[in-house]
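From the pipeline queue, job 12 of 40. The input is one protein chain; the requested action is below.

Action: predict structure.
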Amino acid sequence: MNQLFDKKYPVTSSLLLLTTGVFLAMLLLRGFDYESVQTVYDFGGVLGAEIQMDPSQSWRLLAAMFVHVGLQHFVLNMVTLYFIGRIAEDLFGSKAFLALYLLSGLMGNLFVLVFSPLAVAAGASTALFGIFGAIASLRFIARSPYIHYLSQRYTSLILINILFSFMPGISLAGHLGGLVGGGLLAFVFPVYGEQDSVKKSWRLVALFLYTAGAILLYAWPLLAQPF
């Protein structure tokens, strides 16, 4: 990390700077209270029950991926973003990587909305698990032996991280949601040099599944209410 902004990886650099800016704002404005549940909520943490009652709070579904609970949480995710972001930005290109990151994080937070609505959740890990899932899915898509090898390695990494997701204070729902989102979106955004590796029909099906899943999750609390 020898420079603040790497022009070769503009999206990764921008995400790192933005997330770091939010963390510093939490620290400067709230002092020693920067990692409290109230601070995390005030800066954009997801509280599913509130979004269900007040849809105007839906902005949190995106904002939460830039908010972190404490220094350790922040550093771990930023180190992961630094390395995995550069790999993914090389594979998918900057625009597609940004879409993968944001949409995976959104799906992860939609899982939180439905499956853990009473917990205040935040962190980049929803989006990062999406990037893990996207790279893992490439073993079924890409033709490059290097990408197949990379994908196999990340499949093992996902299994290890899923086990850690059962620890207290970690959002299993958010991680699984990000993983599902990224896995689907890998079929939508082709890797460099392999634009024809996925049939158009597969892309449309994957896009439909992601979109329908996101809409269903967002609407589920209303649909589940008794008439």
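Job complete. Residues 200-223 form the longest helix (24 residues).
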